[in-house]
Amino acid sequence: MRTCHLEEAVALHSETMAKDMTLLWGSGSPPCWRIQIMLEEKQLQGYNQKLLSFEKMEHKSQEVLDMNPRGQIPTFKCGNHILNESYAACFFLENQYKSQGNKLIPDSPDAQALMYQRMFEVFTLVEKLVEIVLYNYKVPEGERHDSAVQRNKEALTAELKLWEGYLKKTDCCLAGKEFTLADVVFFPSVAFLFRLGLSSEHHPVLAKYYNSLKDRASIKATWPPTWQLTPGSDMMKNI
């Protein structure tokens, strides 16, 4: 009975803390998804949230601009603290709620160093990914230059080869056998790649990583709702 009461007290405490948090987000946005996964991992369900539409330009609304003058989402408020960068929000939540939910920064200096390294390398992966996506969406098909298409493809292919090598060494998560902050920030980008048709045959190690984590409770609970209703694309099928 005591254990049961303790669990209830922890759950009530978590819910109370979460009610002081607000997240404005967009479905399918990897930065937004990072914060959602983080909140689940730290058992902070029940926070205030509002799903905004990119198509309707709701991320440029006054509601967003009041919290984020850049007019971007995610926009996250925790008490009196506003954190609009997903990395900042993830670090803040881990540091503020260290003893709650899953511990996402390892104690081992080796694992911790690897985690930080991989976390910040994700910026380079996202850069290569965005170059292809923006070129496809913003440049009409008849105006695309084959040389630019090939250059972007080769850059992302080389980048993904690096990540395949990294994951071969750990054979599980990015910093070892445990799920860490590195995976919180990396997984949404990997999922986005497969959403855009990345070949499992060409990238078997990334596919293994993706398939091993997509049913993790925090990821499954926050899976982008638009992805459940609409098909992906084949933009990355030849990468």
UniProtKB/TrEMBL annotation:
Pfam families: GST_C, GST_N_2. It comes from the Eukaryota. CDD domains: GST_C_family, GST_N_family. Residues 108-232 form the GST C-terminal domain. InterPro entries: Glutathione-S-Trfase_C-like, Glutathione-S-Trfase_C_sf, Glutathione_S-Trfase, Glutathione_S-Trfase_N, GST_C, Thioredoxin-like_sf. Residues 19-101 form the GST N-terminal domain. Belongs to the GST superfamily. This is Glutathione S-transferase rho. It comes from Amphiprion ocellaris. The lineage of its organism: Eukaryota, Metazoa, Chordata, Craniata, Vertebrata.
